[in-house]
Amino acid sequence: MKKENLNTIKTSGFKVPKDYFKGMEDRILEKAQLDALPKTSGFTAPEGYFDTVERSVLQQIQKPEPKIISIFSKKVWVSVTSIAATIVLLFSLNVFNPTPSLAKLNNDTVENYIIDEIEIHDLNLLIEDSELSQTDFIDDNLIDVEDYIDDIDLNDLYQE
């Protein structure tokens, strides 16, 4: 082998992985801190402790019995029925439908109702004799009776 001059050597002959020196300081300090920590925690548990601990803890805990609430209890039944009765009463009182007034009625409508629906006997019960008089039915502007009779054809009377 030839002896080379140290000034002419360009490579050292050792290779280092890429980014080897990045974060090297942090890794060294971390390793030094871990070495300073004690290897044991200082706490010990008796043998078989973790096998029996669950059973002993559950024996010491007393679970209270849960309170059972029946869906069909008297209190619930009374409240549900009272709400239902209130709703039925609300709709049966016709709160949402205004009552009709007499001012909105048409005279023709009232006359037609009386003619079609009410019998003469029912009208007699509604009207007292003291309220009626002959003058209520006499109209001074009527045609004279003689003129009326003159206008009637006698043949029409025979047919009826």
Secondary structure elements and their pairing?
Elements: H1 24-36, H2 49-60, H3 74-92, H4 107-117, H5 120-126, H6 145-151, H7 154-159
Write up this protein.
- The chain is an all-alpha fold.
- It has a domain at 105-159.
- The protein contains seven helices and no strands.
- It has helices at residues 24-36, 49-60, 74-92, 107-117, 120-126, 145-151, 154-159.
- The longest helix has 19 residues, at 74-92.
- The model has no long low-confidence stretch (mean pLDDT 77).
- Keywords: Membrane, Transmembrane, Transmembrane helix.
Mean pLDDT, nearest integer?
77
| Helical stretch tally | 7
Distance between the termini: 162 Å
The structure class reads: mainly alpha
What string gives the helices and strands in order? HHHHHHH
Q: How much helix, percentage-wise, in residues?
A: 40-55%
Write down the overall geometry: elongated
Low-confidence blocks of residues: none
- Rg (CA only): 58 Å
The biggest beta sheet reads: none
Strand content: under 5%
Number of strands: 0
Supply the key terms.
mainly alpha, elongated, 160 residues, 7 helices
Give the structure's gist in a few sentences.
Helices cover 47% and strands 0% of the residues.
